Amino acid sequence: MRMAQVSEHSGVPIATIKFYLREGLLPRGRRISTTQAEYGEEHLRRLRLIRALIQVGRMPVATAREVLAAVDDESLSQHQRLGAAAWALPGPVPPEQDGSGPDETEQARREVSALLARLGWQAAGPDSPPGQALTAAVATLARLGYPCDADHLALCARAAERTAEAELDLLESFPDRAAQVEASVALTVLYEPVLLSLRRLAHVEESARRFED
Amino acid sequence: MRMAQVSEHSGVPIATIKFYLREGLLPRGRRISTTQAEYGEEHLRRLRLIRALIQVGRMPVATAREVLAAVDDESLSQHQRLGAAAWALPGPVPPEQDGSGPDETEQARREVSALLARLGWQAAGPDSPPGQALTAAVATLARLGYPCDADHLALCARAAERTAEAELDLLESFPDRAAQVEASVALTVLYEPVLLSLRRLAHVEESARRFED
């Protein structure tokens, strides 16, 4: 299909598609004349992913380019490519904005290490990007006077484990490895607001159960 | 204690404390002379909450003022006050920025209604703030070509239910009703990055289990 049809099918304006092409986020189409190129399904799929990263994940263009490079890197194992999203996506709390001092951060790092050991999680340590994000979040809680309870953290981690299993099942239902990797990145980002909204609804529900007359 | 000590204990600069006083977020201290006021533990606790809302929750000052008014409103039931955070906090996806059309939003609203009915959740409907946030997130997924699976959503909701129970247990461990309400608001905001980081770590772990040689 031509660029006008890509725009129509995806709902992305032509100017935005041209911007993504220029920035190297979207691969060029197959050139069929000096002024026209042909685009395929893979371009539509990639456009969905770019919008998930930039619009929903609010990711800077340079970071999106890095994530997409990992998605496309055939030399990585499928685990590494599927993990690219969880690994390379910017964490929910950028450590430099967290404001915690070195003592709180060091203490939080020890708590995160102990948690990972207790869970038997070995694939990503406390110094991986999501490990650092967790450390920053735990340090912020301590700094604001709400230190984390180790049992409570472990319980939340076990719940995350169960939903991760279901999410990987969902990913494996996508037709091929490239689509799985793209879906992994997109769903990591797109399900965050779903999960946070469900948590708030569950809070309201549980609070009603306990405190409503 | 005097304002200088409040600043020292909380780590909040005096200029910031004066800003919170001026904006009506922090109650005035008990005046003990024409130039000095006395502050207590309740001011320290309130400062922690204000920082959780504004610094971590990135909440506008006007919204923080509304949440704090609900926290302080003795005419509300404890359920309503504990629910104030989940209810009044700005959702993870502001609907007006979501970009979904009316058809996608209407379809998503039906899916959210069906989910709440299936779960037996009755305290907050699809038109409550967290219900609207969920609807917007589900509509975005559909718009970007990843429609939600009803069974998967229900599974995520059940996991949220279990962590909500544990979170309410944690809240009930706070000494009095005012402290519980403040902790409810603070923990709703402060645990979001914890839970999102745990989810990413769980993804990396589960992906390693399935795909690593």
TrEMBL record, chains A, B:
SMART domains per UniProt: HTH_MERR
SUPFAM superfamilies in the record: Putative DNA-binding domain (SSF46955)
InterPro entries from the UniProt entry: DNA-bd_dom_put_sf, MerR-type_HTH_dom, MerR_fam
Stretches for region Disordered: 88-109
KW DNA-binding (keyword) present: yes
PROSITE patterns on file: HTH_MERR_2
Keyword annotations: DNA-binding
Start and end residues of each HTH merR-type domain: 1-70
Pfam families according to UniProt: MerR_1
DNA-binding listed as a keyword: yes
The name this protein goes by in its record: MerR family transcriptional regulator
